[in-house]
């Protein structure tokens, strides 16, 4: 059931940039002027910036916060089962995993948070997740295929979609991709993706994939230990994070369900910042050093070692890259 506050918010969003008088809102929504006034005040207390002027009425400006109602307004809700937007969580991955312990999903479910106290990436590495300057979310994607040859391309495909979308919101920036799941600008990380499978023990198959995305958008105040390896995309650009979340979610879901994998893989190769470089791959307790030759058709990293032997790796982490001189 839609509340009065939601009805007023949606009407203001539908006419963003325009003035709506209290009488117009009351007539259109068939509620009293007093109810309009109360709803406006309630929205302002929730950090919605709404300008009020005598003889003009109300105009919606923006909200600096992630807001579930705004996300629902812009999102094609036919694509998802549910959306959760929280203030601070341990991590959106944790929320998604907990959700799957008591729910069987038919369509994607989205979890987003203003900040994370324990955000993490591959191998449990911490991801810095301050409030208001980043975007941290997880999408549960129901597994609809037994074609495991395509599973390895899930992260590579989504990395391309995310990079393309970020460049739309930050048109002066170019996003590179470090195998397999990191987003870079120049030599610094601006975001990462982690994809985990929810395994059903009885069938020993994945019922869903849990894809987490962490992005430092306008963050410019990093802990000292991260100053040389991480940055925000651009602290000078004003971004509507609700619209960015919705755009990313729509494109991720549509790509997952209908994506052109060969085209996305070609784009991933084009954006790779490791191909042609000397790399060190950490694989368990082993270190493999050689030249990154190409991204394989299954998303693996093809490395040629010092002996000229070429091998493709589908797991591991590139911990060092060196440009040949």
UniProtKB/TrEMBL annotation:
<dbReference type="GO" id="GO:0004077">
    <property type="term" value="F:biotin--[biotin carboxyl-carrier protein] ligase activity"/>
</dbReference>
<dbReference type="Pfam" id="PF02237">
    <property type="entry name" value="BPL_C"/>
</dbReference>
<dbReference type="Pfam" id="PF08279">
    <property type="entry name" value="HTH_11"/>
</dbReference>
<feature type="domain" description="BPL/LPL catalytic">
    <location>
        <begin position="78"/>
        <end position="260"/>
    </location>
</feature>
<comment type="function">
    <text>Acts both as a biotin--[acetyl-CoA-carboxylase] ligase and a repressor.</text>
</comment>
<dbReference type="InterPro" id="IPR036390">
    <property type="entry name" value="WH_DNA-bd_sf"/>
</dbReference>
<comment type="similarity">
    <text>Belongs to the biotin--protein ligase family.</text>
</comment>
<keyword id="KW-0805">Transcription regulation</keyword>
<keyword id="KW-0804">Transcription</keyword>
<dbReference type="GO" id="GO:0016740">
    <property type="term" value="F:transferase activity"/>
</dbReference>
<dbReference type="InterPro" id="IPR013196">
    <property type="entry name" value="HTH_11"/>
</dbReference>
<dbReference type="GO" id="GO:0006355">
    <property type="term" value="P:regulation of DNA-templated transcription"/>
</dbReference>
<protein>
    <recommendedName>
        <fullName>Bifunctional ligase/repressor BirA</fullName>
        <ecNumber>6.3.4.15</ecNumber>
    </recommendedName>
</protein>
<feature type="binding site">
    <location>
        <position position="189"/>
    </location>
    <ligand>
        <name>biotin</name>
    </ligand>
</feature>
<dbReference type="GO" id="GO:0005524">
    <property type="term" value="F:ATP binding"/>
</dbReference>
<keyword id="KW-0436">Ligase</keyword>
<dbReference type="InterPro" id="IPR030855">
    <property type="entry name" value="Bifunct_BirA"/>
</dbReference>
<keyword id="KW-0547">Nucleotide-binding</keyword>
<keyword id="KW-0238">DNA-binding</keyword>
<dbReference type="InterPro" id="IPR045864">
    <property type="entry name" value="aa-tRNA-synth_II/BPL/LPL"/>
</dbReference>
<keyword id="KW-0092">Biotin</keyword>
<dbReference type="InterPro" id="IPR003142">
    <property type="entry name" value="BPL_C"/>
</dbReference>
<feature type="DNA-binding region" description="H-T-H motif">
    <location>
        <begin position="22"/>
        <end position="41"/>
    </location>
</feature>
<dbReference type="InterPro" id="IPR004408">
    <property type="entry name" value="Biotin_CoA_COase_ligase"/>
</dbReference>
<dbReference type="GO" id="GO:0003677">
    <property type="term" value="F:DNA binding"/>
</dbReference>
<dbReference type="Pfam" id="PF03099">
    <property type="entry name" value="BPL_LplA_LipB"/>
</dbReference>
<dbReference type="InterPro" id="IPR004143">
    <property type="entry name" value="BPL_LPL_catalytic"/>
</dbReference>
<feature type="binding site">
    <location>
        <position position="116"/>
    </location>
    <ligand>
        <name>biotin</name>
    </ligand>
</feature>
<dbReference type="InterPro" id="IPR008988">
    <property type="entry name" value="Transcriptional_repressor_C"/>
</dbReference>
<dbReference type="GO" id="GO:0005737">
    <property type="term" value="C:cytoplasm"/>
</dbReference>
<keyword id="KW-0678">Repressor</keyword>
<dbReference type="InterPro" id="IPR036388">
    <property type="entry name" value="WH-like_DNA-bd_sf"/>
</dbReference>
<keyword id="KW-0067">ATP-binding</keyword>
<dbReference type="GO" id="GO:0009249">
    <property type="term" value="P:protein lipoylation"/>
</dbReference>
């Amino acid at each position: 059931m839609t509340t009065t506050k939601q009805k007023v918010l949606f009407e203001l969003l539908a006419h963003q940039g325009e003035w709506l008088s209290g009488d117009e809102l009351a007539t259109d929504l068939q509620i009293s002027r007093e109810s309009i006034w109360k709803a406006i005040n309630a929205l302002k207390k929730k950090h919605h910036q709404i300008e009020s002027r005598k003889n003009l009425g109300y105009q919606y400006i923006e909200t600096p916060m992630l807001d579930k109602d705004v996300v629902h307004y812009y999102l094609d809700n036919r694509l998802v089962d549910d959306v959760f937007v929280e203030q601070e969580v341990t991590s959106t991955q944790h929320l998604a995993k907990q959700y799957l312990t008591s729910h069987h999903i038919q369509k994607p479910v989205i979890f987003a948070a203003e900040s994370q106290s324990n955000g993490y990436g591959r191998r449990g590495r911490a991801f810095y997740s301050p409030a208001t300057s980043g975007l941290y979310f997880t999408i549960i994607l129901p597994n609809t295929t037994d074609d495991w040859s395509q599973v390895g391309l899930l992260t590579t495909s989504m990395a391309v979609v995310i990079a393309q979308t970020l460049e739309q919101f930050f048109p002066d920036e170019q996003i590179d991709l470090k195998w397999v799941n990191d987003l870079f600008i120049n030599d610094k990380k601006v975001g990462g993706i982690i994809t985990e499978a929810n395994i059903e023990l009885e069938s020993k198959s994945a019922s869903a994939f849990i894809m987490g995305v962490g992005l430092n958008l306008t963050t410019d105040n990093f802990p000292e230990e991260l100053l040389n390896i991480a940055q925000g995309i651009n602290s000078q650009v004003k971004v509507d994070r609700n619209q960015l979340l919705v755009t990313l979610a729509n494109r991720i879901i549509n790509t997952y369900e209908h994506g052109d994998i060969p085209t996305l893989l070609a784009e991933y190769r084009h954006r790779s910042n490791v191909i042609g470089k000397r790399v060190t791959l950490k694989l368990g307790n082993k270190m493999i050093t050689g030249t990154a030759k190409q991204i394989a058709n299954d998303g693996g990293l093809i490395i040629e070692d010092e002996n000229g032997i070429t091998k493709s790796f589908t797991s591991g982490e590139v911990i060092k890259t060196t440009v040949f001189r």
